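Friendly challenge for the regulars: who can give me the structure tokens for this chain first? No prize, just bragging rights.
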Amino acid sequence: MELKGREKQIVGERIKKISKLRKEGVEVYSHGFELEGKRVYSVDITEEFSKLKDEAKSGRVRVVAGRVMTKRSFGKLSFFSLQDLKGSIQVVVQKGEVSDEVLADFKRIDSGDIVGVEGEVVKTKTGTVSIMAGRIFILTKSILPLPDKHAGLKDEEEKLRKRYLDIIMNDDIRDMFVKKSVFWNSMRSFLLDRKFLEVETPILENSAGGAAATPFKTHHNALDLDVYLRISMGELWQKKLLVAGYEKTFEIGRQFRNEGMDAEHLQDYTQMEFYWGYVGFEEGMKLSEEMYKEVCLATIGSLKFEAYGHKVDLGEKWVRYDFAETIKKETGIDVFEASKKDIVAKLKELKMEHDDSVDKWRLADTLWKFCRKKISGPGFLVGHPVELSPLAKLSKEDPRKVERFQIILAGSECGNGYSELNDPIDQEARFIEQASMQEKGDEEAMDHDEEFVEALKYGMPPACGFGVSERLFWMLMGRPGRECVAFPLMKPERQDKKGN
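First reply, four minutes later:
Bragging rights claimed.
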């Protein structure tokens, strides 16, 4: 990185200081913190102190560690703000009240340094709960200065590229990634409590199956064959585990789709999928609704949130929206009766971006996306055409449709499940149709997975499968997807060619 002006001067001064401290025998990059076992978080000190009676407050010594955010002096009084994982606390250094060693250590530290502090908990004249430093431990010297505390990082690309700085400077961002861990762990606990078995399935596959999406392709040198990064959370593999006799399985992991990127879509992201034997999509809808409510409460402490301009309350009655009926109500098009030409004309009228070369049903799905944006939910989209659901069981009431549901929240599809197709003859016929769609240029059509069909021929019990991606978490945070990933993929910074 290229340093300029005042920043370059600060770096030079800090490097000289590190050299000087080393000559004095000061360890500027420690191997650990000798008081780690006694360390507490700043917020715990504040909460503990506020609950104590006055006579019990004096003489309470505590140990903290974290990053120095600000440092200032006023005559005999000096202060620095120490930030840890859960918050921050003020450290006081008062000449005449502390040792010369503590005063020397205070002068040695800079904003950005990581230090440990042991001292008595006090309340200043301004009413601020603080620690009166008894000992200061330099744990890591910082060379580069932090961004201005008030201005922070202004450039959005820089925030994502240097996310560690964004987390240091922004409490909301730091808290968000703690909530993300709560989000996935609460989902995991929900399923484990209901006796689902957590499994691992391959990330590299011979064929891209389990979803309608464009895969990433790479080459496996040892086996000398082209493989794909998975586009589903092991859907076909988990169904093979149903064939094997496991009745409830789930997986949480990364999956990859080589498609567009926007507020609701990323190319690699975390997803959960479960497969539940001996039940159908009705039971899947009930379980997923329960799971969403439990996960939402655990993550944000409420069933209400706002996302993409919609207000959502998961505590309300979950409505069912029929695919064809909703489209007809909003656009006047009956997708089962309309021709491809009719649907294209309507999409043009609605100014919806589309590809005229794809199958009629892909265009019908684009028409649905127009309608979906108006629905806040919570609810389930049902009545999907069989052509859009090659892995779902046919509806008993209408053979044009399948037993599938998608959870609709804030105008977005936020979860997908169905009664799994376990008829190997029907499945093979649908794979053949998907292969035909591929030949016509549909990049999202599925491969014909002969090994999966063979597994089905041994017999798979009736089952419901369901998947939800981290898009649900993005919604709960009210942020676009890229902001909710700790380190999103970025284009490399372009160096000035003239300077190299």
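The chain has two domains: 5-146, 168-318+377-484. The radius of gyration is 29 Å. Your move, everyone else.
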